[in-house]
Structure formats: C-alpha cells, structure tokens
Amino acid sequence: MPFSPEKRKGTISGIIFVAIFAAAATYIAGLAPVKALGLSPLVIGIVMGIFYANTLHNQTPVAWQSGITFSAKKILRFAIVLYGFRITFQQIAEVGMDGFLVSLIMLSSTLILGSWLGTKIFGMDKDTSILTASGASVCGAAAVLATEPVLKAQEHKTAIAVSMVVLFGTISMFLYPVMYEAIIKDAVGFLHMDPRTFGIYVGGTIHEVAQVVAVPASVPGSPTEMANAAVIVKMTRVIMIAPMLIILGLYLAWDAKKAGGSRNEKMKLVIPWFAVYFIMVAGFNSFHLIPQNIVNLINEIDTFLLTMAMTALGMGTIFAKFKGLGLAPVYTALSMFVWLVVGGFIVTKVVVGG
Q1: Which pLDDT tens digit goes with each residue over 345-354?
Q2: What count of Cα atoms within 13 Å lies in the side-chain half-sphere of residue 126?
Q3: What is the value of pTM for the model shown?
Q4: Count of domains in the chain?
C-alpha cells in the first residue's frame, strides 16, 4: 500500500516531487508565447515528465516511485470526477438534438474506426489503439487519461496516445480557421456552413477543449454563436466519456470471457466508478448550488491535479519501450484525423444543414 508505514514517507515525497513539476508546467503554460499556441498545462506536464524519465530518472530515490504511481493512478481518477464541474446538463440541452447527434456519431464512429485500424490494419496492440482512438473521439488528453485506468494500460502507451492527440489536435487548431476563411465561409452549396453550423462542426471534431475554444477566436470577426455552439458541442462530447467508459468496460469483460474459451472463466466486469461519479458531479453542477467563483476555483484545482497525473504518466515513459511500434500510431491517428475533418464535415452537413 502506498501509505503503509514503510512507504508513507516515500509516497508523500513522490507526490510533492510530481506537484513541483506540475507547478512548473502550469507556470510555463501561462506564458504568453506558449498560451498563444494553445498548449495546456497537461501537455507541458507530460513533456516535462518524459524528459525526466529519459534523463534524470536514475538520480531520484526509488522510494519516491510509489508517490509518482499514486499521482498517475489515484489522483487521476479523482481529477476526472472533478472534471464534472465543467459541465451542466443545461449546456447539452442548449445545443439541441442536432448538435447532440453530431457528437454521438463522431464519437462512436471515430472510436470504432481508430480501434479497428490500429489493431487490424496497422498492427498496434489493443491498449494503444483504444487509447489513441479515445483521445481523438472524445476530448484529447483528458479522455486518454480517463481510459487508461479502465484498460490498465502501461504509461508509455498512454504517452503515445497523448502525443498523437497533441500532434493532430494542434494541426486542427490551425487548419480549421483557414478552411473557414478560404473555403467554407463564402462557398455556395454543400461546402457552405453558417457560423452556428461551423461551430458544431468544430466542437464535434477537434480533439482538445482548448483547441476548440481557440478556433473561433482565430476566425476574424467570428459571431458569438459560432464560439457558443463549438464549446457546448465539445462539452457534450466530454460528458459522453462516462457512458463510453462503461460500455468499454462491458466490452472488455465480454472480450475476456470470449478469449477464455471453454475454460468457462468467470466474466470480470470492469465498471469505471469514477466515470459514474463524473456524471453525478455534472448532474449536481447542473443545479448551480455552488457559487460560480467556487466552481471556477474547483476547476483550477482540477486542472492542476490533471497536470500532476499527466506529469506522473510522463515520468513512467521511457523511450526504449517505444521500440517496435514504428509509425503505426501516426498512421492510425492520421486516419482518424482525416475522418474527423472530412467525415465530420459530411456528418455535420447531413445532420444540421446550414
């Protein structure tokens, strides 16, 4: 146990060590040049953690590892639960059925497509494929972090998935405003989208919440309805992470039973309870019983906890473990990126019109 008498001191030291890294990542992410790139503290944290893992890892006490592991596992689950304070059910209702359908179709299709391509076409292991697909289909790095405990995946696989989210999410952040200005805004017929429809398209297909916020802000004179639609649809995708994880747990249990064959092993159902608590917190937040300034403080604390978890995951990522994967993660993430951009446009036009 991490807090047993013999491990307590090392665990606390490890947690403090991770927190120092997370504080540095938060500070760096707040610098104007970094902020302009849309890089969240989570991304900075995992980069710093990976740097540590491959340079200074052997220079720190082994006893601290229990604290690093605690940050990557337990603090992560708690942070995902607190993430529910960013969402209300009213926000989902505001965007309407068309926005909800775009979110549902893009999430489910991207998750299935990415998992299948990764394992069957590009030869990746199941965990890395599902983690990469979850990041692209739901909400980027936070979704990868939330999926990792359900799969019980290794840290380096999580880092691979996060790196793919960062790469293609960043490309999206720069691509979409150019597409809107150069093609979509003044197009006639099927290629045209009004601001609200384009907002739904952005929210339904871009990886990270911060990237979704950045796209309308990068469109000159973009109407408020574009930004509102984008953020609300994105948050609809975020809240879908809970049912997605529960369904994933059911699938993994069924798959394990199937693999057991004639041994008739007992089916072990993996229920990600933190995902259930996440929905409960979002439901509680929908009643607006807590003052907004307190909710904002909770969200800031939550971002820091997520940064700690991301940093700790990075600290378990040693490049030697990447050998043998080759370009399979890039091919898988690129395929999902093309589907999100092209397929997402078609889905949005068919469902919403505009």
Answers
A1: 999 999 998 6
A2: 8
A3: 0.72
A4: 1
